[in-house]
């Protein structure tokens, strides 16, 4: 009973990271198909799973195709009720779904100005006021999650789908040296130090790019985790 997951370039594809963590962190068996998101072959590589056209995309063991990360999350949680992919407590569970939905539809400034890249820290990046507004909202939502958290370092104590959805945000905060509170920085450290994230990043760094898709605005410093 093995899934097939279509992903893009690991160093840059934030949505692919989310999809991969949904499977990897909950020990679900899957094979990966990396498409040419930056190599120009994406449409060709995904032709066999039309109408899916974006990564990540999931193929179930039965051959059903699931596009869009939120649909993938709900599908996996429904198919594996024995695995606590959402928080067990009902109030925390609805908060987790809320956070994921807002992640899918929101934070346009940070998406636009801080494209995910896992190669280095863009140490001289200066966030716009719009990015700062997004960061404030993210911190509000993380604090909202922690109100219902049980013991544990993740948004709701134990790792949940909400943490998978916000992992690329943590990468953006660190990768662009964005100003956040100590509590938010600690959560980012937890996310980026996690073995699954580090495995994802290490695989991505095996591929080099010339030119680099997202050149820094000034000096860079090494990735800290």
Describe the structure concisely for a colleague.
The protein is 46% helix and 9% strand.
Please give a structural write-up:
The protein has helices spanning 14-24, 42-45, 69-79, 90-105, 108-113, 129-146, 161-175, 182-193, 195-204, and strands at 3-7, 30-34, 57-59, 65-67, 121-122, 220-221. It has 225 residues and is of the alpha+beta class. It has two domains: 3-79, Glutaredoxin; 90-204, Glutathione S-transferase Yfyf (Class Pi), Chain A, domain 2, CATH 1.20.1050. Strands 2-1-3-4 form a four-stranded mixed sheet. A two-stranded antiparallel sheet has the order 5-6. Strand 3 and strand 4 (65-67) form a beta hairpin. The radius of gyration is 17 Å and the shape is globular. The mean pLDDT is 97.
Question: Layout of SSEs?
Answer:
Layout: E1 3-7, H1 14-24, E2 30-34, H2 42-45, E3 57-59, E4 65-67, H3 69-79, H4 90-105, H5 108-113, E5 121-122, H6 129-146, H7 161-175, H8 182-193, H9 195-204, E6 220-221
Parallel strand pairs: 1-2
Antiparallel strand pairs: 1-3, 3-4, 5-6
Helix pairs in contact: 1-3, 1-7, 4-6, 4-7, 7-8
